[in-house]
Amino acid sequence: MRQMHRGRVNRVVIGLVGLLLLALGGAVLAVGLGVRPPRWWLHTGPHDVLLSEAERTRWADAGWWWPAVIAALALLVLLALWWLVAILRRRRLAEVLVDTGDGAGALLRTRALEAALAQEAAQQEGVAHTEIRLTGRRTAPAARVGLRLEPEVDPATALHDFTARSLRHARESAGLAALPAEVRLRAVRHRAERVT
Q1: CATH superfamily of 95-187
Q2: How many CB atoms lie within 10 A of CB 59?
Q3: Of these four, 70, 82, 95, 115, which has the most CB atoms within 10 Å of its CB?
Q4: Highest-confidence range of 5-19, 30-44, 172-186, by mean pLDDT?
Q5: pTM for the whole thing?
Q6: Residue ranges per domain, the chain?
Q7: Rounded Cα distance, 115 and 113, in Å
Q8: What kind and span of H or E run contains 148?
Q9: Which of 172, 143, 147 is nearest to 160 (CA)?
Q10: pLDDT digits 0-9 by tens, 138-174
């Protein structure tokens, strides 16, 4: 749920920044092409400059100006990089704690569980390709599943078969009380058949 919320926030922020940049760029282009801007606008006409010479050289002699500008730009770049890394970072679970019944437990590599789950799901009728990724905590993992289905397969049947067989087998074999899953179904693209 947290990952979905973060993804929604990222899309909203990126959309708002894109709209703001598009509006500013479009307004500057319109003024440059001769459209008369409102009185409160920064530019008065197509031959106006963004910063006048007086504005550009106003703080140039102050000793604090350039370090402050460089620090502000560096902070902006670091924040942008941090945000990019946070978006691109994939929280892949390394191990799942399996209850062995003796109180100690055992650690199971998630790649092995992902591979077993993907292999069993790929054997389902009409499943062309599978992508499995386990996320969450090692005591409470969750699965993110992508299934590509053949065009003639009923998605509801494929989803039921996956949850009733493959997902249940993975949960039982790992000794997990629950294994929630987010399943995304897509149809395989195919070429149109030529009718003669």
Answers
A1: Cation efflux protein, cytoplasmic domain (3.30.70.1350)
A2: 13
A3: 95
A4: 172-186
A5: 0.51
A6: 1-50, 95-187
A7: 5
A8: strand 140-149
A9: 147
A10: 888 888 899 999 888 888 999 999 999 999 998 888 8
